[in-house]
Amino acid sequence: MAFATFAAACMALSTGLTGFAQGAPPTLGSWQAGPDAKGSNTFIGRIETPTRGQHVSEAANLLVSGWAADTTAQGWAGISGVDVYNAPKDKGGTKVASGMVGLNRPDVADALGGFGTAGFTAVIPASTMASIAGVGPLYVYINTPNKGSWYKTVIINA
Description:
Blueprint: H1 3-15, E1 32-33, E2 43-49, E3 54-55, E4 62-70, E5 81-85, E6 95-103, H2 106-112, E7 119-124, H3 126-129, E8 135-144, E9 148-157
Parallel strand pairs: 3-9
Antiparallel strand pairs: 1-9, 2-4, 4-7, 5-6, 5-8, 6-7, 8-9
């Protein structure tokens, strides 16, 4: 996909389509390299829930969801797993949830011309939420078969 077309599709994702919780357009390369990351940052996507600064209950499960794709993947989104940590995993973070990937996202497919299975979701159990008390980031790691793990953060109020 030509860069100008790709950039226009990203803008469409942020302005013209419903279902996206964040206002800024998804940016190519906005996922940060995890401790085992390899190669170029060719990832695009976003965390849609929880939203930045969202107040969450320590007594309830917390849904973490969004979409991510490796723009060099052929025939699929290129993401093999998703994990949520309470701190960077290479700095003593604890995994608080693992989730599902490959979920249907027709809005992403319509805007980008592919990656229709770029959706992900994970649930942090209520029993774990009590250990995440206070204001702080969650680290959402996407796992790939050839490029290791990459992450984004979202700050919550627990």
